[in-house]
Amino acid sequence: MDVTILVSILIVLALVFLALLGTVLFLYLKWTREVEETVVFIEMYLNEVNERARTVVLAIHEYTPIQRQPYIGTLQELSGRMQKVDVERQNVENLLITLYDRLNAIPGTAFQQLIRAFPEAQENHLLALQLRHAQKVLDGSLKDAERLVERLRRLPEQIHKRVTQAVSKMDEMQGLLGKLKEAGVEGEKIFQAEDALQQLLTLREHLPAQLLTPAPPEDNADIREAVTMTYARMEHIEPLLDEWLPRVRAWEQDYQRALEVYETLCNRARHFRTALETPPPNLIINEFIEVIDQVRQQAKVLNQRLSQPQVDDLSAIAREAQQLDQHIVQAAERYDRASRDLVELERVLLEIESLHKQTQELMESAEQQSVYPVQWQVSRPLWEKHGEQMEAFGGRERRRTPDEVEKDLVQGAKLREEVSRLLTQVQESVAVHAELVRPLQHPHLAEGKIYLASVQPTIEGIRTFDPVNWRREERFGELDGEFKEIQRLQSQVVPGDASAPILETVLKSRLQEAQTLKTLHEQLRPRFQQAKVRLDEVCEKQKTAQEDLNRAIKTIDHLTLLMNNQPFLQALAASELKRLSTEISLKQVELNQQSRGAVEKKVSHVQVLLDGFNRSLITWLEKLNQEITLQAGRLEVMLAQLDGVARIQDRTVQDARMLAGRLSVSPSFNPAGMDFTELAGEIKRRSNDWQTVTASLRALDEMSRTVLSSNQEVQQALKAVQELLQQAGRRATGRRTWPPHRQAFGELASQYHVLLNRHEALRERTCSPAEAVKLLGEIVRELDRLEQQLEQANREADHEEQEIIQRERDIEDLSRRWESMGARFGRENATVQDIQAMLAQVNSRVEFLHKQYLRGTLDYDTVLRDLSTLIDELRNARFTTNDGRQISLE
Asked: Over 60: is that where the pLDDT of 303 sits?
């Protein structure tokens, strides 16, 4: 165990060492390649830097004669950048020289080179990374210098853009001041703005014509001089524009805003006056007319100020016009609200009148009814009070101010709620009165006295019967007290004179009493009828039970006669029938003794006994049906077995097939809907079916025993042959496989399929039982012979394949021996190359034999002979070494 662990540790260490060695080699090659690429790149880059630096220096010499702004500042910055570029370029060159020296160092011995290769490669790689970083810094500085050169060349374009913008702003300022003067705007600030504009126009006239063109000028010596001059003048122009142009814009905006607000004020006042020309008929609008007049006077003053405005007064004019406009808006909103409130007030007044009238109509209708009228001792005074409030409130035609409209709308809403509440109370009372009249006119209450007189004999009859015959839940003993209570309410709720008025305050209590009386009628009338029905029911049940017992005795006698020839039913039901016959006779005697016990209890015992008889009949019938279905199923199984062999032509089979088709499924019937007489008839019919199917099953079993045993022998023989073919496996497929053999398993498999098809075809053949047994015997004999042939072929094929396998193993052993012998010489030795050529040829010939045999061009004997020849060639082969010696396997 210790040796195994030590060997495993050594293997792991060796693998780790190999991995580390591979990593070191990979890094060495990677760093060496990157250093070489860096050297080539930097050499090319330095050449490019020299050209770019020369271009920048030429630009500096070109612009140096111009010692004025804006050129002088940019040139100073550019000179500083170029000094930095020279320092960084010298740094890159120094690093490149250092890397050259390290790469061209004089090598030491081979061992020293091996030891120092990796550390030197790492140091060179770090130096190359440093060189790359220095190159990026140099490139950034050089790009900054090139951008400064580009800025110098674009200065004419930038100054042209500033001039163009300044000229545009001058034109805008001149146009805005012109509009303000045309509008009559005056003031000290306007004069100051005009002076500033005059200064700007004077400076504009001294600007060079080259910079006033639409297109930007090209960079040259003349334009550079113009740029310096324009740059100095723009330092005066742009501050003036930045100071006065925003002011002028603000004045023009204030003036336009004042005009817009004043125009809006005039339009809104005109629309409001137009609306006041057609006010609502009942609204007083004097206060709105006063507002319009005040606004018109103040608007005239604003108009005079706008005709010759002062520049400092423009904001104040706009603000005052805005205030007047807001005053108009508030007045218009108040007018609109008053108009809407007036419409709502008229609607409320109309609704109050309608509700008051509806209340009057309902009360008068209830008071004038011919049957049970209502006397309104509470609602009538309240209705008259509401009428007085409506007269004091005023009608819809009354003219009102906006304040009066708002106040009357609140009071009208309150009065509407009171009138609506009174109407609701009256409606409830009328509804209660209508509900009271309906039960009082109901036939139960109207004809109650006559009906109660007719029920009294039934109540007296209940008292005369034995209480044991009545069920407890029927509570016939309480009928006497309930009858007296309904008589009392009938005389109290339904008076003799229907024209007498009913007070409004007692309507609800009278309604409850009427509903109680109606409920008692509805509850007690069915009970009175139930008592009468129960008297007749007891006698009818006793008579029916006696008739059922007589029919049950006759049914038992018929079933006893049937069982004498039916052994299955005899064993199943004989003892039970005898017990039932005895109990039924005892129940007949007990039922005839009417003076003892409750009739319903006796009838219940009889029904329990007859239900038990019914259940017993159902159980016997179900078991008989199950037995018949089981026998029919056995017939179907036996017929299916025969059909799996052949179509047997026999009278016994035909009868059994017809009988199985008819009896294989139990008959569908509902025993819950059948009495014992019908069940007994069904048992008799099914008993005949049982005797028929039992006889058919015995006859079919005797006939099919020989046929089925012969078919079983065939199936066993087929299974044995199939197992042998499965053992043969790939040999039985009919295709050639390796290793080869001489046996023809495909023909034997074909014979098996022929016999299998003959056996399956027999199923579709119509024949007698004797013919089927004869054909099955022939198939069994041929299958036995085929089984023996397959066993012999498998044994011979195994032996032949082993011979081929052994030949291949011999060739492999000889090839390995030649490979071992060739390993004693170097790779470049001619003898080794000859041995390898011979082994390659042998492998090629073996592969050729495989392919040709699988294609079918070679047979087993040819393959065996060629393999033996290859073995002899390998054993007898001889080769001469470089020193003249003969080598062989011997």
From this structure: yes
For residue 632, CA distances in Å to 432, 640, 687, 691, 889 come to 78, 12, 14, 12, 84
Q: What are 648's strand-pairing partners?
A: 767
- Which residue is listed with tokens 């009427």? 514
Under 8 Å between Cβ of 754 and 688: no
Angle between helices 567-592 and 507-563 (to 10 degrees): 130
From the CB of residue 29, how many other CB atoms can be counted at a distance below 10 Å? 11
Q: Name the band, by pLDDT with cuts 50, 70 and 90, for residue 349.
A: confident
pLDDT score for 730: 62
Sign of torsion over alpha carbons 7, 9, 10, 16: positive
Alpha carbon 212 to chain centroid, angstroms: 70
Cα gap 612→527, rounded to integer Å:
34
pLDDT score of 724 more than 80? no
Cβ distance 706 to 720 under 8 Å? no
Cβ-in-10-Å burial (0-12, 13-18, 19+) of 410 comes to exposed
Closest CA to 590 of 579, 580, 581, 599: 599
Q: Is the pLDDT of residue 112 over 60?
A: no
DSSP string, 297-363: HHHHHHHHHHHS-BGGGHHHHHHHHHHHHHHHHHHHHHHHHHHHHHHHHHHHHHHHHHHHHHHHHHH
Threshold 0.70, pTM exceeds:
no
**What is the Cα–Cα distance from 172 to 168, expressed in whole angstroms?**
6
Compute the radius of gyration of the chain from its Cα atoms: 66
- Amino acid making up residue 248: V
Q: Angle at which helices 402-440 and 379-393 pack, to 10 degrees?
A: 160
Give me the half-sphere count of Cα atoms (radius 13 Å) on the Cβ side of residue 139: 11
Tokens of 414: 């309150």
The number of helices, as runs of H, and strands, as runs of E, in the chain is 22, 6
Q: What 8-state DSSP symbol labels residue 766?
A: E
Tokens of 534: 């129960």
Nearest Cα to 803, choosing from 865, 854, 859?
A: 865
How many angstroms separate the first and last alpha carbons of the chain? 40
Counting other chains too, the contacts that 567-572 makes at CB distance below 8 Å and 24 or more residues apart are: 568/624, 568/627, 568/690, 569/620, 569/624, 569/683, 569/687, 572/620, 572/623, 572/624
- As a whole-number percent, the residues of the chain with pLDDT over 70 amount to 84
**How far is 47 from 88, CA to CA, in rounded Å?**
15
Cβ neighbours around 714 below 10 Å, total: 22
Residue from 789, 782, 842, 847 nearest 811 by CA = 842
**Position 593 confidence tier, pLDDT thresholds 50, 70, 90:** low
Higher pLDDT among residues 152 and 792, named by residue: 792
Distance CA 466, CA 463 (A): 8
State the amino acid at position 360 in one-letter form: Q
Tokens for 691, please give them: 């005797």
Distance in angstroms (rounded) separating the CA atoms of residues 628 and 666: 8
Of 674, 595, 645, residue with least CA distance to 759: 645
- The Cα 179–Cα 171 span in angstroms is 12
Q: Helix, strand, or coil here: 887?
A: strand
The string of DSSP codes covering 484-532 is HHHHHHHHHHS-S-TTS-EEGGGHHHHHHHHHHHHHHHHHHHHHHHHHH
Length of the chain: 890
pLDDT at 438: 80
Q: 193 and 215 in contact (C-beta within 8 Å)?
A: no
CA within 13 Å, CB half, 468? 9
**∠ CA 293-299-305, rounded to 5°:** 155
Residue type (1 letter), 769: P
Q: Is 594 exposed, middle or buried (0-12, 13-18, 19+ CB in 10 A)?
A: exposed
Q: How confident is the model at residue 255 (pLDDT cuts 50, 70, 90)?
A: confident
Give per-residue pLDDT as tens, 519-573.
877 777 787 777 777 767 777 777 887 877 788 888 878 877 877 777 777 777 7
